[in-house]
Amino acid sequence: MVWCLLTEKRLLKKISYIAVLLILPILVLGLQRGSTEEAGMVSIGLYTPAKAGSLSDKVIQRFLTEKSVLRFYRFEGEEEALQALYSQKVDAVWILPENLEADLERLAKRGALKPIVRVVEREDDIALTFTREVLCSKIFPEYVYAVYQEHLVKRLGENVPSEEALLAAYDRRRWKGNLFQATYMDGSEGTTESYFLAPIRGLLVIWLVLAGFAAVLYQKMDESRGVYDGIPGRKKIRYALGLQAVVLFNGGLIYLVACKILGVFTSLGWELLLLVLLQIMIALFCTSIGLLVDRIEAIGIMIPIMTLLMVALCPIFINIRRFWMLQSLMPPYLYLKALHGSSYLKFMMMYLLGGIVVCMTLNRIKYRK
Amino acid sequence: MRYFKYFIVQLKRTVKLAVGVFPTAMLLFACLGIAAYIFMNHGPMMQNQKKYQIGIVGNIEDSYLGFGIFAVQTLDDSRFMVDFIPMTEEEAQKAFRKAALAAYVIIPDEFLASVISGANDTPITYVASEGQKGIAGYLMDELAVVISELVTSSQGVIYAFEDVVMEAGEREKLYEWAENINLQLIENVLTRTRMAEVEELGLAKGLNTRQYYFCAILLLFCFLFGISSASFFLYRNADLGKWMKMRGIGPVAQVLCEYFVYFLLMLLCVFLPLGVMAVITKNFAFLMTRVYLDELFGALIPILMMISAMHFVLYETVRNPVANLLFQFLGVIGMGYISGYVYPSSFFPDGIAMVGKLLPTGIALESFSDAVLGEQNGKILGVELLFFAVFMILSIWTRRQSIVRENR
């Protein structure tokens, strides 16, 4: 314990170490603030020659104000909108007609749909096909209302109620909500953070693993300087784990603060439990590697490679589930899965037990003489 | 002459270290290649070309829902985008864990009754994410809103129509009239995308997926090379600077000599695998564009000058190995992320995208993308050289300060 405190003091004397710890929440705060700005996976340019207050204008306003993974830009001229398409500022341009209301009434009378919105794209793909669904979903309610009016006029003739009464009847019956609810496999509800903030938590976990690796490197450098010369071989592992504890404790605190800023906290108890388990897993993983590999250069070689493999195989940017055996050796994989899947907790516990056995065995083998 | 001698000493040291650094770099390159392969086959950009497989859980046989799903799969425009596969919850969970499904939806038995009654109080739940929510998960959320909008607007119209007809005292004709409006709405829902008239310009969108990831992965390798070459920097003796100064080699000469050999090492570790790759892949045929090797290598030289100078200044200023590794990882991954190395920068809000473009990672990506497309941009070259100069000045200043500290 005293040794841990001394190590902590030694680390905290380094301004660069404190700076690295503090810079993380600051960066996350910057990203979090930046995420409140408008962003989208596909950019759409909107234009209508219609006047303000017209139906086309109202539909455009809905696109601009409602939350979406698409990003909308309004243009005042058709040429300007198409120019944005040529210069790749937008992926598609939607040109709404001057009199959308009359067009919809015409279609409602015919009973069949015909093109009324001009969509100009550079090259069609699945993402743009998907955006057209979004376009139609905003115009379709206006169209079905026109169908409703048309059917009533046709059926009731002169007995049809006033426009206000029809609208009131529709408003009464129109249910505004989502028929779908996103959940995780354990039934917990999905988070609503911005899509580009979603991988940040995963990257923070990798950062924590890197802290574990850095502790191994630090311990090896100390060893080469003769800091542990007076300690019997087998007992050196206590100091290695102690150094891991100090570095991961500091990193874990910063990680928690960063997660809080990001707004990805599930519940404090659950977060703390999983974080402690993750820290022990990382400590065992990194210490085992330190026991297996003696040379600092070799550990230096492994760090970027391991880090990249973890970024690729853990559910950070993409969710690959084909290398399960390899993935379950990586502490961030089980941790990130466990966050919304309590069934993974048992795998974490198994990892811990296995990790302790492996670590102790490696220590015994290394110092058997 | 003494500067030259110092340079030769550094060169010899680097040749010795290169034995360790070079295999590291190759391993890193191979790992990045694997990561690129995985990302290109499963990443968000690939999702532009693959249909989403969605599992349907729930009793849909002998019901309107079964007919609806059949109609969507055979008549609806979304059949080009989504495949619906009926299965049990266990099968869906298993397939979802194996990544065979993008998502699965659970339709409760009471769902249809709740929609028919207009209560809409039994939502369909869908699982699109396990662990971190990916891009597909966010698209599923949007798709859910789209479907919900189509269903509830049609539902609202039908019930309002029935109310008005009843109030008008036409109860006996209601069934026939309601059936008519229902059938028309079903037909309209299935043909809804006909409202849009699509014009394709047939213009390419700058870099294609392969070119994009080729640029991003190669540059990520260059930036992460700093971590691989830790042995080049971490073994330096802190007193060496002071000692060399006493021998007449000042901080400027020290930094320039050391930097130059590091730059040569980096050049070797980047150009050699790239050259081998060019031969194996017949001049990068997989990029599906004609690549001029001289232009590609020419564009890489100023980029590597800037990146190696950045590594140099990082090792000069942050000497503690723990802090340095954490800082480099944070710097490279963080800067790379917002500069568009994983998702295109158009995915980000304007403010973040702008910052990303101005960072060394953003400048390098723009410059190298131009080279792959066979374009030239003098402004970008200027910015690269400016970054290089700033990093070098900072390195020299830090070295001078450390010598002054040692002398105290």
Walk me through this protein's architecture.
The complex is a heterodimer of chains A (369) and B (408). Chain A has a four-stranded mixed sheet, with helices on both faces. Chain A is elongated, with a radius of gyration of 30 Å. Chain A has helices spanning 2-12, 15-34, 55-65, 78-86, 100-110, 126-156, 163-173, 198-224, 236-262, 268-292, 296-313, 324-327, 331-338, 344-366; strands at 42-47, 70-74, 92-95, 117-121, 180-183. Chain A folds into two domains: 2-34 and 191-366, no CATH class; 42-138, 3-Layer(aba) Sandwich (D-Maltodextrin-Binding Protein, domain 2). In chain A, 64% of the residues lie in helices and 7% in strands. With 408 residues, chain B is mainly alpha-helical. Chain B folds into two domains: 2-43 and 208-407; 51-195, 3-Layer(aba) Sandwich (abc type-2 transporter like fold), CATH 3.40.1710. Chain B has 15 helices and five strands. Chain B has helices spanning 2-42, 64-74, 89-97, 111-117, 135-167, 174-190, 209-228, 230-234, 240-246, 251-280, 293-317, 321-338, 350-358, 360-372, 378-407; strands at 52-57, 82-86, 103-106, 124-127, 196-200. In chain B, strands 2-1-3-4 form a four-stranded mixed sheet. The model of chain B is unreliable at 44-48 (pLDDT under 50). At the A-B interface, helix 2, strand 4, helix 6, helix 7 and strand 5 of A face helix 1, helix 3, strand 4, helix 5 and helix 6 of B.
Gist?
The complex is a heterodimer of chains A (369) and B (408). With 369 residues, chain A is of the alpha/beta class.
Assembly type of the chains comes to: heterodimer
Helix fraction bin of chain A: 55-70%
Kindly give the count of domains of chain B: 2
Q: What structural category arises from helix and sheet content of chain B? A: mainly alpha
Alpha carbon gap, first and last residue of chain A:
28 Å
Low-confidence stretches of chain B: 44-48
